[in-house]
Amino acid sequence: MHATRRSLLQLPLLAALAGCTTSPVVQGSPGPAAEPIAPTRTSQAAAAADWVAGFAALIGDATLTAASWGATPQHLAWLDAVAKQSSAHGSRVESEDPVTGGTVDFPPASPTPAQPATAATPADVVALLTARVAEGSPVLQAAIATAGSGAERLLYASIATASAASLRPDLPPAEGGAEPAPFADPDVSASLALALGHVLALVRALEVGLGRLSRKDPLLDAGTLRLDGARALRNQLLAAITGDAPEGGTWELPNAMSTPAEIRSAWSALEANVLDAIGVVVAADTTSAATWLTAMLAQVQWVHQWGGRLPNWPGWVAR
């Protein structure tokens, strides 16, 4: 076989390439390793994390001093449930991405509660926690206002709602329930329509229940009051919807609603559904998130009124 002029000219190049691929020697000095990017968060998110840590510290202090203020087994079970709830919240807000969680990017400080736990009675403990929740309201609202996504807005709204719901020793946080996870920002119109549907279902169940209660039933007065409030919430949602409001539908009652106990249970379940649906509106409506957070927090009273309990993450449902 005769070599051509072209092939002879290519030999030096091929040899050079072969030398580059087979030589184990690395020429030159390695460059400096890239500096890891430090996690960041807004000042509002940091303040929210500090508040969560302070609330947890107050719960811990109340637990340690339980004997001094006359805690009963019910109180201890309540504090244990609230401590677990606060731990779940803390594990999220200590992460750069609290919605996903899983990492502790900002180790919590060891805060001193804003008010020393000088409780002498169970009522004193509830008062201390109530004051702490009130202090956290503007902090969590600021975190919602500066959140980077609908899921993050719902996370902080959920912490605010869960904390407000944790003040009843007889109705401690319920175990289980969905946890925060990423989701696409919901559409405002669709979320308002969803909430309206749940409020209409509640209104219908209130009307049915009131019609079936005896005139001497203690639920009657509270149910009548709630019906007025539910209708006002319905009107608030209708006013927020631009364009044609969705038509009312038919709703299946949660149970037969044939006894006061069934009526109470149905109302509680539907109130929780309304709370969850309003949480979606908080996530969706960046301009009116504070307004809908107020409505979400107001639901806590009515879930409790009918004997219901809320999970660690109110507003989060399986998606």
TrEMBL record:
Q: Which PROSITE patterns match?
A: PROKAR_LIPOPROTEIN
Tell me the superkingdom of the source: Bacteria
Q: Where is this region: Disordered?
A: 89-118
The signal peptide stretch is 1-28
Instruction: List the keywords (alphabetical).
Output: Signal
UniProt name for this protein: DUF4439 domain-containing protein
Species, as recorded: Tessaracoccus antarcticus
